[in-house]
Amino acid sequence: MENVNFVVQLLKSDECVTLMAHAEVSKAELIDEAIRQGEIEEDERECFDKAEFCANKWMKAVPRAGYSTYYYESREGVRGAFKATCLQYLW
Predict the structure, then answer these.
(1) 3-state secondary structure (DSSP) of residue 78
(2) Contact, 59 vs 19, CB < 8 A?
(3) In angstroms, rounded to a whole number, what is the distance separating the alpha carbons of residues 32 and 66?
(4) What's the domain range around 30?
(5) CB atoms within 10 A of CB 5
(6) Long-range contacts for 25-32 (Cβ within 8 Å, ≥24 apart)?
(7) What integer pLDDT is reported at residue 84 of this predicted model?
(8) If you count Cβ atoms within 10 Å of the first and of the last residue's Cβ in the chain, which end, N or C, has fewer?
(9) Nearest-CA neighbor of 19 among 77, 63, 41?
């Protein structure tokens, strides 16, 4: 089994596409790991390289009707919260 540096998820909504790392990493590290894990293709790199919104923040996942999992911004110390790097671009 391949070693995973950190978990990356590709999240899509009607307005935007978000790459989320379950870790505090750089934009380049996030994109490289997303490609390595198969979340995005190499030809999608440019879209994420040009993305202007990149933030390190506390997130929390909760089950919610209509979503497999819903993520929202949280804060340190909240049970189940994790540090994440989010890279986002609008459709």
Answers:
(1) coil
(2) no
(3) 30
(4) 8-90
(5) 13
(6) 25/85, 26/85, 27/51, 27/54, 27/85, 27/87, 29/5, 30/54, 30/85, 30/87, 31/87
(7) 95
(8) N
(9) 41
3-state secondary structure (DSSP) of residue 72? strand
Looking only at Cα atoms, what is the longest distance across the chain? 38
- Over range 5-23, report the average pLDDT: 91
**Residue 2 domain-assigned?**
no
Taking the model in full, what pTM does it have?
A: 0.83
Q: Is residue 51 part of a domain?
A: yes
Q: Give a yes or no: residue 59 inside a domain.
A: yes
Mean pLDDT of all residues in the chain?
Answer: 89
pLDDT (tens digit per residue) in 54-88: 889 999 998 877 767 888 899 999 999 999 999 99
Domain count, the chain: 1
